[in-house]
Amino acid sequence: LNMLEGGQISRRQCAFSGDGKLLLSPSGRTLNIYATATGEQVGQLEGHSGDVTCVVLDPRDSDQAYSAGRDGTLRLWRYHTEECVRVLHVRETVRSMVIHATLGVAYLSIEWRDADSGRVICFNLDKGQAGATAMKTRAAGPLAMNPQGSLVATIDRHSLFVWRVGHEITQPLNLHHTKPYTCVALSSNDSVLAAGDVTGRVLIWRDFAAAVPADLREGVATGKKRAEVPPPLTTLHWHPAPVGCLAFSPDTTYLLSGGREGVLVMWQLETNRPNFLPRLGGPLVGLLHNPVDPAVLLIRQADNTIRVVNTATMKVECSILGVRPRPPSLSAPAAAAATCLQPRTGLLVLPTSNAMLQLFDVHRHRHVALLQMAPRNMVAPTASSTSSIAQPLGSDTDMTDAQYLAEAGTHHGLDGGVLEPCVVHSVFSGDGKTLATVEIRPDAGPYGSSEAALRFWDSNSAAPRSGAPVPFVLNTRVDEPHRGGVTSIAYHPSREMVATTGGCHDPLSDGASAALEGYQGPCELKIWERISAPKRPGSKVESPTCWRCRSVASHKGQPLSAAAFSPDGSLLVVAAGSKATLWEPFHSTCVCTLPSPPELLGPYAPHLQRLVFVPGTPFLVGSTGSSLTVWNMLTCSVHWSSPLRTCSLAVDPHHPFFAVSVPLGGKRQQHHGMVPLQGEAETTPAGKGVSKELQQQQQQQ
Fold first, then answer.
1. Angstrom distance (rounded) from CA 507 to CA 624
2. What pLDDT shows up at residue 415?
């Protein structure tokens, strides 16, 4: 399997082009090039064999840029022609990089010996080799250089190191702090140094340059000197959570800071008074000024968003949105149930924080719209909820982009321990014109219980003509469609009919969502249909419709956890515990119960969590999370089964293939296997051999 699009665009260090009209952003193993005026992706730089970790504009030629990757190389690009000019080998993963304009050297913050520690080295770009000295750190941290190129700074937990620029690393000044640092910035006139810590404080040192020694270092682990007379220190405190980023204005009049509150704070250094640009929608993790227009600022956010802000007008000029993180209350398998593709358009619908669905065009790699389920603002964390956090967001440098998105989603739902509403199920009609969603609202019910809401959305016909930002409008909302949690939802392939199951704890949550706990009630199957509705006074809708419950059914008191319509819509399969039952959907009658494999027999057998029909074949696939079963609907028998652990299950709508996501290698690794079904029913499917191989790998892990 090859990843087509997606990945993080705001996690790592970005760079403006020399004229400020383009933005270079690392995304996986590539560098995406965006137009700052429109936010459209206009190019892509490919060449790294590992993830790109940072990109810096070449100070000697503004039409070129250096990038670093986990493959241990530095690459020089002519980004206008998307051409790689030169490759330099560092042999270690570079986490941060700053380049001196006249000396032709770069300071690199690298991981050392499998990321057990870090080093800061001086690398000669002309000769392609590192210097003789290095500074040892506990981890590879961020680097900052003033525009004049005379001083460089980095942070290492409770220490802030500042040293003078040269062909080798000179003796650094060590500014110790009782709390761990999170970010650092240097002013353009060498007079002000700023750093943020985990308590939300911003520390400012003025007239500090005289305290920075000019001696060469001796050895790797020695020579970190503390000032005999510490420079004057000022402490500013507004952020209730760790400071995520800092940047000085080019004229050193303002210091800009951001954090998990989603607010850009502009401190006037003469008076230390703050101004605010609020409601940016996500935690701030990076700031960068436009080299041409000092008023234009680039903001990187943890929710995979890049914004271009004009600080003079206090307005957002452009927003570039990638795939946003999932809600913090949803595990990965639960989020998969709320993810779907819109037929005909191919738009990917994803659940995200603040009770929203994101529509993302995977072919154009472009965000389309956000669909708000319920009005809600992002809430900043309290001091008690962040007091135990000792590192900034994304400080774990070994995590993958998917794990970073999960962490970003956790910090994006900043409620100080209060869970936010989230979408747990979504499904489209066959023509893609109707969307059905199920959302969970924690603490919305009586005595602090959670409530579910079933919503039916119609496509907004005015959106293509008028450019309306919302492609769907709400048709019907049903509060508490089941007296308990909604465990699944399925849409009829050709008719305006929807089936929902519920009344018990949602097995897709894997116990990770406290919002779904405590759901108990009658286990029911409900069939919903669209009917004509009376026209409201003043309504512009010519033929209004609404949705109603057509029928209710149950099966021997068993928990109903999954449902799926057959491709022709004549059958509805419902998971009743560990059994797969067949129903006639128009009369809600149970036709038969499919036989179960040995691993699904007995009173303690795991419940089926997902059922899908494979198009063009007589096969039905079911997953319990710990086993995979394929039934032949022509013979009503088990075709094959395997005790294979799976995270999610998806089917190709046009070809006889289905895919499962298989966890392997612990928390930080996840492999994906595609299992094809080919040939006649009596032929051994190719997926059986694949599942056996994956099962053996899981047992070895």
1. 9
2. 38
523 in Cβ contact with 559 (< 8 Å): yes
Q: In what order do the strands lie in the sheet with 545-553?
A: 486-491, 497-502, 524-532, 545-553
Single-letter amino acid code for the residue at 511: G
* pTM for the structure as a whole: 0.83
Q: What is the pLDDT of residue 252?
A: 92
What is the rounded CA–CA span in Å between residue 675 and residue 689? 9
| H or E stretch at 692 | helix 686-700
- Going by the DSSP 8-state scheme, the letter that residue 481 receives in this structure is S
Choose the most confident range, by mean pLDDT, from 146-155, 399-408, 655-664: 146-155
The amino acid at 689: G
Is residue 136 within 8 A of residue 125, CB to CB? The reply is no
276 closest CA partner among 263, 287, 285, 288 = 263
Phi first, then psi, for residue 550 (nearest 5°) are -90, -40
Q: How many CB atoms lie within 10 A of CB 679?
A: 12
**Which sign, positive or negative, has the C-alpha torsion 88, 92, 96, 99?**
negative
Q: In whole angstroms, give the CA distance from residue 118 to residue 138.
A: 6
| Structural contact between residues 379 and 353, judged by C-beta atoms closer than 8 angstroms | no
Q: Which segments within 429-523 are labelled E, that is strand?
A: 434-441, 451-459, 472-479, 486-491, 497-502
**Distance between CA atoms of 506 and 472, rounded to whole angstroms?**
27
CA dist 474 and 259 (Å) reads: 34
Q: Provide the residue type at 189 as one letter.
A: N
Interatomic CA distance for residues 454 and 414, integer angstroms: 25
Tokens 């472009």 locate to: 366
Return the ∠ at Cα 401 (arms to 301 and 333), rounded to 5°. 105
Residue 225 vs residue 447, higher pLDDT? 447
507 CB-side CA count, 13 A: 21
| Run of H or E residues at 463 | helix 463-466
Q: Is 696 helix (H, G, I), strand (E, B) or coil?
A: helix
What percentage of the chain reaches a pLDDT higher than 70? 81
Lowest mean pLDDT among 38-42, 242-246, 602-606: 602-606
In sequence order, what are the residues at sequence separation of 6 or more whose Cβ sits closer than 8 angstroms to the Cβ of residue 499?
Answer: 489, 490, 492, 525, 526, 527, 528, 563, 565, 572, 574, 585
- In terms of DSSP bridges, do strands 348-352 and 356-361 run parallel, antiparallel, or are they unpaired? antiparallel
